[in-house]
Amino acid sequence: MDEKELLGLKSKTTLNCTICDKCCEHRGDIKITPINVLEISKYLKIGVEEFLDKYTEPAPNEDPERVIKAVGEKMRCIFNDNTTFKCTIHEVEPMQCLVFPLVPWDLNKDLFINSNQCVLKNDKKMKVDKWLNSNHKIYKRNKFIYQKWIELMEEIQPWWKIIPKETQGKIVNLLYLEYDMNKNLEKQVLKNIEETRRIFYGKRHFNRS
Ligand code: SF4
Ligand code: SF4
Fold first, then answer.
1. Is 95 within 8 Å of 139 (Cβ atoms)?
2. How large is the average pLDDT for residues 1-15?
3. Who lines ligand 1 at CB under 6 A?
4. In angstroms, rounded to a whole number, what is the distance separating the alpha carbons of residues 129 and 170?
5. Among 91, 95, 97, 89, which Cα is nearest to 22's?
6. In whole angstroms, what is the distance from residue 19 CA to residue 87 CA?
7. What is the pTM of this model?
8. Does 27 contact ligand 2 (Cβ within 6 A)?
9. CA-CA distance, 186 to 176, in Å (whole number)?
10. How many Cβ atoms sit within 10 Å of the Cβ of residue 47?
């Protein structure tokens, strides 16, 4: 199959990984959504606030999104072990890393394209669903919530700069911080996404069409 074509779960495409580390350097652009923030904090056994402060920063010009910090001359992702080149949060890695070199096209329909950005040049092919589910079933678990997050960002980002600062702060706290780690994380994220909409539209900055 031509790798520029849309790929479904049963499509076969060039997919292979030898953990060469190349896709974890020159980063600073790995997006991290609230479900990742909660899952990774839990995995690292640290508080959400500490995690956000130590390992993430605002995504440039994409408020209120955040990215994982990159460090050193090579701008290596802070979670990449610089001796083994392995991802130290592999079990809970963000969607962008999980699907790479695939790029989501339409997650509601499980459609992807192959970016062909893996530096490994060979023609080993694999089915998309095998690739996605090779890592602790994160794709299946987080796909829905990830899609909901993307939809929210598409709605609010174009208007973010004209939202009053106080409301921005309220939304950021709600989306990233207001969680009980002992309760169901997915349900809380979905609830906070909806609550964000209520604040956003309720303030009558904009009308929903
Ligand atoms: S560039 Fe390719 S081979 Fe290297 S770590 Fe990334 S996916 Fe694996
Ligand atoms: S989160 Fe893991 S896979 Fe993703 S860029 Fe960082 S080290 Fe690499």
1. yes
2. 83
3. 17-23, 100-101, 118-120
4. 38
5. 97
6. 9
7. 0.90
8. yes
9. 13
10. 12
